[in-house]
C-alpha cells in the first residue's frame, strides 16, 4: 500500500511542478498584453485625430463654400418669388385701373345721353305747347295749315335727331312721316319741299355708321384668347463641327473652311439674333399682358371713335403676334385673320350735313303767309 502511494506521488510531482511554473509565467504575459493593448489604443486615437484634422483642413472650407452657395440660391429663389408676386400685383392693379376707367367713361356717356334726352324732351314739350297754342289761336284755320305745322315739326325734330344724337334711322322715319303728310295735301307747289325731303333721306341712308358694340365684343374675345396662344420657343441652331485636320482628310478640311469663309462674306447672318430666344415664365406673361393692353387700347379707340389710335393699336398687336407667337399654330393664324378683319373696319364718325327740307318748308310757309296777307 505504501509503495503504491509513493509511486503516485512520484508521478504527480512533475505535474505539480509544471503547474507552478505556468502560474508564475501568467502575470508576466498579462502585463505584456496590457502594454500592447495600450499602445494599440494610443495608435488608434492618434490615427483618428490625424484623420479628423486632415478632414477638417480639406473638407471644412468646401463645406463652408457649399453652405454659402445654398444660402445664395435660397436668396435668389426668394427674390424671384418676390418679383413674381410684384408682377402679379402690378398686373392686377393695371386691370383694376383699366376697368375703373372704362366704367367711368361709360357712366359719363350714359350721363351725357340722359342729359341730352332730358333737354330734348323739354324742347319737344315746349314745341308741342307752342303748336297747341297756335292751334288754339287759329281755331278757324283750315286743315291745310295744321298738316303744314305738323310736317314742319317733324322736319325740325329730324334735324335735331341728326345733330344731337346722330340717329339717322329715326331721322329718316320722321322725314318719311312728314312727306306722307305733305303728300296728303295733293299740292303741286309742295314739290320742291318733297324733293328736298327725298334728297335728305337718301343722304342719311347713304351714311354707314360702324357697329361699335360688335367691334367691342370682338376685341374682348380676342383679349380672352391671348392667354391660350402658343408662344414661339426656339433655340440656336447647331453649327457643323469642323473635320479633324489630318493629311488623310485635307480635302474635307479645306472645303469646310472655304465654304464658311464665303458664306460669311456673302451671307453674314441668316436670321436676326432676337429670332432665337427661350422665354421664362415671367417674360411669357409680360408678352401676353402687352398684347392684351394693345387690344384694350383698340377698344377704347372704338368707343371714342379715334381711327388713328385704333389702327395703330391693331398694327402693334399684329407685330407682337408675328414676332413672339407661333405662326404655324391654327389658333395664331385665326387670331391674325381676325385682327386683319378688324383693321379693315372704319370707325370714323360720319360727316353729317344740314338737312335742307326744314328750310324749304319754312320758305314755303312764309310765301303762303305773304299771299294770304
From TrEMBL:
<feature type="coiled-coil region">
    <location>
        <begin position="70"/>
        <end position="119"/>
    </location>
</feature>
<dbReference type="InterPro" id="IPR007470">
    <property type="entry name" value="HemX"/>
</dbReference>
<keyword id="KW-0175">Coiled coil</keyword>
<dbReference type="Pfam" id="PF04375">
    <property type="entry name" value="HemX"/>
</dbReference>
<protein>
    <submittedName>
        <fullName>Uroporphyrinogen-III C-methyltransferase</fullName>
    </submittedName>
</protein>
<feature type="transmembrane region" description="Helical">
    <location>
        <begin position="35"/>
        <end position="60"/>
    </location>
</feature>
<keyword id="KW-1133">Transmembrane helix</keyword>
<keyword id="KW-0812">Transmembrane</keyword>
<keyword id="KW-0472">Membrane</keyword>
Amino acid at each position: 500500500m505504501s509503495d503504491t502511494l509513493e509511486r503516485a506521488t512520484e508521478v504527480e510531482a512533475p505535474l505539480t511542478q509544471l503547474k507552478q511554473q505556468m502560474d508564475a509565467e501568467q502575470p508576466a504575459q498579462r502585463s505584456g498584453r496590457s502594454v500592447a493593448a495600450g499602445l494599440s489604443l494610443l495608435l488608434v486615437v492618434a490615427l483618428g485625430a490625424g484623420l479628423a484634422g486632415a478632414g477638417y483642413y480639406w473638407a471644412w472650407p468646401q463645406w463652408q463654400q457649399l453652405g454659402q452657395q445654398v444660402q445664395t440660391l435660397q436668396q435668389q429663389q426668394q427674390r424671384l418669388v418676390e418679383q413674381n408676386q410684384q408682377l402679379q400685383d402690378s398686373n392686377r392693379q393695371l386691370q383694376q385701373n383699366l376697368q375703373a376707367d372704362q366704367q367711368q367713361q361709360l357712366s359719363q356717356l350714359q350721363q351725357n345721353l340722359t342729359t341730352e334726352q332730358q333737354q330734348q324732351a323739354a324742347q319737344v314739350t315746349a314745341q308741342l305747347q307752342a303748336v297747341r297754342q297756335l292751334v288754339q289761336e287759329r281755331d278757324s284755320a283750315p286743315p291745310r295749315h295744321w298738316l303744314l305745322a305738323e310736317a314742319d315739326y317733324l322736319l325740325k325734330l329730324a334735324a335735331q335727331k341728326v345733330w344731337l344724337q346722330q340717329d339717322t334711322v329715326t331721322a329718316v322715319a320722321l322725314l318719311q312721316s312728314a312727306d306722307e303728310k305733305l303728300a296728303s295735301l295733293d299740292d303741286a307747289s309742295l314739290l320742291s319741299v318733297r324733293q328736298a325731303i327725298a334728297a335728305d333721306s337718301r343722304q342719311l341712308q347713304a351714311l354707314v355708321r360702324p357697329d361699335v358694340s360688335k367691334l367691342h365684343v370682338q376685341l374682348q374675345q380676342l383679349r380672352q384668347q391671348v392667354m391660350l396662344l402658343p408662344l414661339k420657343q426656339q433655340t440656336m441652331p447647331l453649327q457643323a463641327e469642323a473635320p479633324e485636320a489630318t493629311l488623310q482628310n485635307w480635302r474635307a478640311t479645306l472645303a469646310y473652311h472655304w465654304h464658311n469663309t464665303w458664306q460669311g462674306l456673302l451671307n453674314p447672318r441668316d436670321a436676326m439674333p432676337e429670332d432665337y430666344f427661350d422665354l421664362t415664365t415671367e417674360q411669357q406673361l409680360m408678352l401676353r399682358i402687352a398684347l392684351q393692353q394693345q387690344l384694350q387700347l383698340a377698344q377704347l379707340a372704338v368707343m371714342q371713335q379715334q381711327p388713328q389710335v385704333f389702327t395703330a393699336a391693331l398694327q402693334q398687336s399684329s407685330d407682337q403676334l408675328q414676332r413672339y407667337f407661333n405662326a404655324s399654330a391654327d389658333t395664331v393664324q385665326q387670331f391674325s385673320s381676325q385682327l386683319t378683319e378688324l383693321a379693315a373696319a372704319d370707325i370714323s364718325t360720319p360727316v353729317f350735313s344740314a338737312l335742307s327740307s326744314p328750310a324749304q318748308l319754312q320758305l314755303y310757309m312764309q310765301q303762303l303767309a305773304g299771299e294770304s296777307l
